[in-house]
Amino acid sequence: MRNVARLYVRDMGSKEMNDALGGAFAQRTYEEIDQDMNVLNFKKHLAKPNLCAGDGPISKWRKYQDEFYI
């Protein structure tokens, strides 16, 4: 599967500046998305995960969001 992202940056006034900043921004964003995908590709849904008190109100959130999934 191929991932696609579009990035828009403000015009910095010159082509050289646009290319330099836009290129650096795009490269850094690509690297961060690539790192995230390495994690997200191996995640899986657990119907009843092991939770601890420090997980906060995640149980309420999971119950709420269940109505949006089949």
Descriptive overview:
It is built from two helices and no strands. The chain is mainly alpha-helical. It has one domain. It is elongated, with a radius of gyration of 19 Å. The two termini are 24 Å apart. The model has no long low-confidence stretch (mean pLDDT 85).
The counted number of beta strands is 0
Estimate what percentage of residues fall within beta strands: under 5%
Amino- and carboxy-terminal Cα gap? 24 Å
Anisotropy-based shape: elongated
**What structural class results from the helix and strand content?**
mainly alpha
H-E order: HH
The DSSP helix count reads 2
Question: Radius of gyration from the CA trace?
Answer: 19 Å
**Biggest sheet statistics:** none
Question: What helical percentage do the residues reach?
Answer: 40-55%
Q: In the residues, how many domains can be counted?
A: 1
Q: Summary?
A:
The chain has helices at residues 15-40, 58-65. It has 70 residues and is mostly helical.
Features:
2 helices; mainly alpha
Helix and strand arrangement:
Elements: H1 15-40, H2 58-65
